[in-house]
Amino acid sequence: MSTHSAQNIAFSANGLTRYFGSKPVVRQCSFAIPRGTVTGLLGLNGTGKTTAIRMLMGFLPPTRGSSAILGIDSQALTAADRMRIGYTVEGHFLYNWMRVADCECFQAGTFARWNGKQFRETIERFGIEPSARVSHLSRGQRAGVSLALTLCTLPEVLVLDDPALGLDPVSRQALNETILEFVESGDRTVLLSSHLLDDIERIADRILIMVDGRFVVDTTVENLLSRLSTCTLELEEDIKSLPTIPGLVHLRRIGRRWTLTIVDMGSETEETLSQLGGRTLVRSQTAFNDAAMAYLSRSRGSSSFLSKTPIAPASIGANQR
Amino acid sequence: MQIRIVAGSNAAIYKQIADQINRAVAAGDLEVGQMLPSVRQLARELVINPNTVAKAYADLVQAGIVETQAGRGFFVAKRRQVYTKTERMRRLDESIQSLINHSFSLGFSTEEVLDRVRELFAKALRGVPESTS
Questions:
Q1: Which segments within B8-123 are labelled E, that is strand?
Q2: What percentage of chain A carries pLDDT values higher than 70?
Q3: 10 Å Cβ neighbour count for A235?
């Protein structure tokens, strides 16, 4: 159920699936990301994020299903369509023998649309001199030049695959500022994958969490946090077998002290917890980092007693961007 | 006033913003009728998503601490109660319950907690910011 009309959707997928040999890497992924948002794509290494992004960009055909950018099927994107899409990957290729200003001149000639002012402003934010040699740039500065080159083409959407990997705090701040400025106009959209939860908490308004090739969370940050609670219990005795706890997303046990992350905690869950015996030490809203970690850590050794309820877009109110 | 936020904290970013404005109003650092920075301006300053600031402001408006004047922005509101006595009590109890739970788990006595509450109240009303964890 979508509350957004098709033209307000920047990125979408419908049952997107990809196998490598007999191994499913991306499974039945569906999403619709509205324009004007920053969406953070979280997932452990090898969980299918990059494969999903490559299919979305039309670089890799899906085994089943489809995806679209700005309403155009990913597999049918023309050169003109691609002009509307900015894409940066970690380790973007730059000629080492060039100076930063040369990179701009070189690329400007190959694009129909080019905004040199955008280039200068972006590299300035990353503290890069136009006369600097590419070979002398730090990792963060190289990322800054890549991003500047992408933004010059005035794209409508930006897809960033792990842009913050290995960046120092100053470059990360510059990256975050650049992303937020990009969406300020209101109809431009960013999809970025990252492992940096603090940065995602700051800049993203939507979250996709991928576990073993599936999206287990697809919602606004606000909705994610409002639906999760964290409880810490101290039990009177050791419990060997676990009862079914409704809505349980994650459980951490240290001796008799249990910390549970629960989605949509209701009276049913409360009752189950009280039947365990013991006392509740702390019950609070879940912090963003803990919420993300609760879902991310499910992929490794996830257990059958955990709730399978995904946090899906169907639960988002119509007023959410 | 200077708003500071920490990502990765136990408190959601919107809550940190709302709490600091709330405290500044209580301490008199922000006066009735004073204009708050615009959503966009504060988001830029803190390098955060503007929706997060908007959420903080919306919560403050709902709590009657801040009011909007169409097209002009957000202003510190005249102090008034938007909740009934019962509702205010319920909300207070909720916070106190969580304080009690935390105090138990950290092993503080009732007296120690009450002393600390008095101390921090005094500090907050003098406008001395308490470092957040």
A1: 66-69, 73-76
A2: 91
A3: 15
Beta bridge partners of A210: A43, A215
Q: Return the closest-CA partner of residue A26 out of A16, A35, A37.
A: A16
Chain A positions in Cβ-Cβ contact with residue B52 (cut-off 8 Å):
202, 205, 221
Rg of chain B's alpha carbons, rounded to an integer? 16
Q: Name which of A51, A35, A16 is nearest A155 in CA terms.
A: A35
Cα angle A223, A226, A227; round to 5: 85
How far is B102 from A231, CA to CA, in rounded Å? Answer: 11
In the predicted structure, residue A314 carries a pLDDT above the cut 50? no
Q: Which residues of A touch B99 (CB under 8 A)?
A: none
Given this model, what pLDDT does residue A311 score? 61
Backbone angles phi, psi at A257, to 5 degrees: -95, 120
Is residue A175 over pLDDT 90?
yes
Beta carbons of A281 and B51 less than 8 Å apart: no
- pLDDT by residue for chain B (133 residues), tens only, comes to 789 999 888 889 999 999 999 988 888 888 899 999 999 999 999 999 999 999 999 999 998 899 998 888 999 998 776 678 888 888 889 889 888 888 887 889 999 999 999 998 888 777 655 554 4
Distance, in angstroms, between B30 CA and closest chain A CA? Answer: 25
Q: Would you call B101 and A184 a contact, using CB atoms and an 8 Å cutoff?
A: no
Strand partners for A68? A12, A73
**CA gap A33, A55 in Å, rounded:** 16
CB–CB contact B13 A202 (8 Å): yes
Helix (H, G, I), strand (E, B) or coil at B57: helix
Which spans in chain A are helix H? Answer: 49-56, 79-82, 100-108, 116-125, 139-151, 169-183, 197-203, 221-227, 267-275, 288-296
Higher pLDDT, A71 or A222: A71
